[in-house]
Write a structure and sequence with these properties.
Radius of gyration: 27 Å
Number of helices: 9
Structural class: alpha+beta
Number of strands: 7
Strand content: 5-15%
Helix content: 55-70%
Length: 276
């Protein structure tokens, strides 16, 4: 076969390939409808929810590979490579099964953390035991007692943004906010007191939270802790800190910080930040 024949052969093959791609792409457009659009929106929403829940977790890596593999399978379908498409779909299903088997505990914990958290906070809102004003008063009393006793502690309290994604970094509790319990936890220097305590609507959601994954070797109870600064900014959370070497209370919220707060000033700051 001469040069011209080879050139014509390749050009003819390329035209056939382009025509096939155009045909398959047109077929995709022909079946695109309102139902397909809604379906895509739901899938994208689900993937976004998974991204928010699984970000910084070990299971995130295989999930990303799963999405990329699915993207290649869809691309093969558009190009009309049917055999490759069906093989990739089979492999994709096998990947899902393997992820479900290998990460079943992580998936179960994800569901428990997400839905269990929402159920607990909903019960707290509906419960007659919770009263915002009383909660703030007890919070002020508890923090000042921790400070006077020189018991180091960190309380991360929700203001507007949910703290559900931080629960997995600690030990989930879902128990009412009680002064005696908090003093007992932080005074014992146990695993529960080695990190931050997460509080939402009068509930202690978790204790010993490091706020980031992987956990740092040492979680410092100071305003210079980058994890605490990030939580204060990103979640608009109220971060209250007491120390082991001085009778002081520090507060972080957003970009603002407060130091050496008295009982009166702490009460004023909390009431300006927390809904009541």
């Amino acid at each position: 076969m001469g040069f011209e024949e080879t050139q014509l052969y390749l050009a003819s093959g390329w035209r056939d390939f382009i025509n096939q791609v155009i045909f398959n792409w047109q077929s995709v457009l022909d079946v695109f409808s309102l139902g397909t659009f809604i379906d895509l929106v739901l899938v994208i929403t689900l993937l976004w929810w998974l991204w928010r829940q699984l970000k910084s977790k070990a299971i995130m890596t295989p999930i990303i590979k799963l999405v990329v593999w699915l993207g290649f399978a869809v691309f093969a379908k558009i190009l009309g490579l049917s055999a490759l498409f069906y093989v990739m779909v089979v492999v994709w299903v096998m990947m899902i099964i393997m992820i479900a088997i290998n990460y079943q505990q992580d998936i179960r914990k994800l569901l428990d953390d997400s839905f269990g958290y929402k159920l607990a906070t909903k019960q707290a809102i509906l419960s007659s035991d919770f009263h915002a004003g009383r909660f703030i008063n007890e919070l002020v009393s508890t923090v000042m007692l921790l400070a006077k006793s020189k018991i180091p502690s960190v309380l991360v309290i929700r203001t507007t943004e949910p703290l559900s994604r931080l629960i997995s970094t600690g030990i989930q509790l879902n128990t009412p906010f009680k002064q005696d319990l908090i003093l007992d936890i932080f005074s014992r220097r146990s695993k529960l007191s080695s990190g931050a305590m997460l509080v939402d609507r009068g509930l202690i959601m978790a204790a010993g939270a490091t706020l980031i994954i992987p956990a740092p070797k040492r979680f410092s109870f100071t305003v210079r802790n980058i994890a605490l600064q990030e939580v204060a900014r990103r979640y608009h959370a109220l971060v209250v800190i007491t120390y082991k070497d001085r009778e002081e209370v520090s507060v972080l919220h957003g970009e603002n910080s407060y130091a050496k707060l008295s009982v009166k000033n702490l009460d004023r700051v909390l009431k300006n930040i927390l809904p009541h």
